[in-house]
């Protein structure tokens, strides 16, 4: 990997005059001006297109997004304020070989995390074996005591997962964080693809890209395999998507998924629980509901059990869930496994439950509750990224190299006041990819969020949401912090494809460990 | 050959019934848009007539207009220059044109995934335009364009709806709302009119009175259709018959009730609730309007007759609410 700290502008054609490389991994160029094999065709196309043409294409794409209403709601502004999620036209390309490893690694990770969740809400072997300290686990903000001893269908807690991957300077992928509660963004993945196919039809066809449009169908199939076991409804379970409502920032995605899956989009007030059975109120009377794909956080699901001030949920839902009459996907209490402090233990969790080597590594993480870690981090704050464990969306974090002395002092005080609430990671140079900025091609930092489904088997659509830090030099890709997204192409190329098929064969159905059967609790009557 | 009664329900629909909340929103969207349309039309016609009339006569008509729209009004003489505020722009009057368009749009916004994209775009565009308008100086004299814009916006919306949305249960609820509202507003209009104007019903009317009756027909977009049926000679009895009992004209009460009845039957089939209360009341009202004769009605008293129709409309509304949107859960669980 050729890296140069000095911006290189030599030999660059007009579209690329502003393209600067730094010490991060560059997705397109192996060395300045020399594209990697799988980027060569895109590179050629870009050289041929005049900047004016590129700018026009971008405008056409933006308009398409606006007209189709592919938007997210901005909080804190007036009623109905919707913004388009910025989209970058240039695709991010991943070879089949690289993808095969990602697929295998993510399947391994999600399998282990599901075993972990079952364990901590039942026997707690991993705690007894002192792999994870009890105080760390029980102090997780999203640990749900209510889930102790409760059995979920197929022992699957997380059936819909979006994991954030980054590419390190040496070109290897690593996991930055798991999103095991209600990951969003998948509608943008599908929408990006739809628009890009219109803008670059020939390039797309010539590249040979795996399709992703079947995601909603796969999601529905996954949800259906999770239907409660004790009812006659198994053949054709009624599945619904529970949304917090029209003012939620991801409401567009909820309507999109419900429409694509052909299921009802319900709000809490459409549902009711009676005798531990959940019904929805239709014009033809009450209809029993079997599976709820919920996009409402744990806290708001049931005012009788969690936050009493919630009007988004359904009173009595948790009891129906406990009685096994309805499935929630994802299960309640999965947030404990994406707590940033538990994240640090995931490699050990994988080794403990699967007895396998970790395929996709973590990034190095320091737990600030640990005395030696804390001293090291506080001494090197200017090179570290410090994050609050329970937060997401790019909130509550300090990026050392881009912070002021005052901000660092502030964070030092916060860490010392509540060390358990923080972790730190070295500042990582996210890989860079070419992006279209004002008609010229510039380099921006990106990450990758593939979506993993777990039902009867593990399913990944080849691709995901590549998020882009559109501000120059920025490392924050969250949409709330000036991020955008681009389409992700996984190639169907020669040897890599065979490899992928082999990996898929190995993705065996997930089954409970027969050596450790779980004694079911008596059903609530 | 006609398909059997439950044919559609059995053949094409996987599960019976749509979400009550969604049906409720579509129904109310239909009602609000119809109300905006009705108010626009009536105001437009009245303002045209106002130009033709002497000031004294005009003052009486404004009071009548407020009553016909069931708008809130202080006692005493009505100041026509203040009318746009109340009837067009006021957001505190839930039945003003702007409020109605906003409520229709808000209802659709909550169930956007149920309608086609083009429907949403059209209603949204109408909304964005009307909330920008302000009652400027002498607005009332140049208001024709505005009313026309609202009317055409609503016509376009209904056209798009018919062309792009499945004519299933959701569509039927939109129609239901639209025609319940129409039957109700038309009845109120006729009631107010007959209360105020006491002509000899048999002979043709002349002069100032002529304008009153032309105004009534115009408010129901019925002038041309009436002339076609009975020539331009206006006889109150024929007008009453036309607006009350004509089975073919879209702005007659009978026509509206026919549509309500048809929508309720289809919804009843789709939800397996055909014999329930709303269908029964609507069927009874429809039969009454189908087999009544205007002479009988006059003999019995127009006022009583219309009052009865209005009450039945209100009952249909409550029955729809009770059977489809807000039914008792205990009763439902017991069945």
Q: Give the helix proportion of chain B (percent range).
A: over 70%
Mean pLDDT of chain B: 87
Spatial order of strands in the largest sheet of chain A: 5-24-23-20-19
**Overall morphology of chain B:** globular
Largest sheet of chain A: 5 strands, mixed
Describe the structure.
The complex is a heterodimer of chains A (525) and B (335). Chain A contains 15 helices and 24 strands. The radius of gyration of chain A is 23 Å and the shape is globular. The model of chain A is unreliable at 1-10, 76-80 and 509-525 (pLDDT under 50). With 525 residues, chain A is of the alpha+beta class. The longest helix of chain A is centred in the first third of the chain and has 25 residues, at 96-120. Chain A has a domain at 366-426: Dna Ligase, domain 1 (2-Layer Sandwich). A 5-stranded mixed beta sheet of chain A has the order 5-24-23-20-19. Chain A has a 4-stranded antiparallel beta sheet with strand order 7-6-21-22. A 4-stranded parallel beta sheet of chain A has the order 9-8-13-14, with helices on one face. With 335 residues, chain B is mainly alpha-helical. Chain B has 2 domains: 20-165, no CATH class; 169-327, no CATH class. Helices cover 71% and strands 0% of the residues of chain B. Chain B has 16 helices and no strands. In chain B, α2 runs parallel beside α8. In chain B, 43% of the residues are buried. Mean pLDDT of chain B is 87; it is low at 8-13. Classes of the chains: A alpha+beta (525), B mainly alpha (335). The A-B interface holds A 68-69, 80, 238, 245-246, 255, 258-259, 264-267, 269-270, 272, 274, 280-287 and B 15-21, 23, 109-110, 112-113, 117, 120, 169, 267, 270-273, 324-325, 327, 329, 332-333, 335.
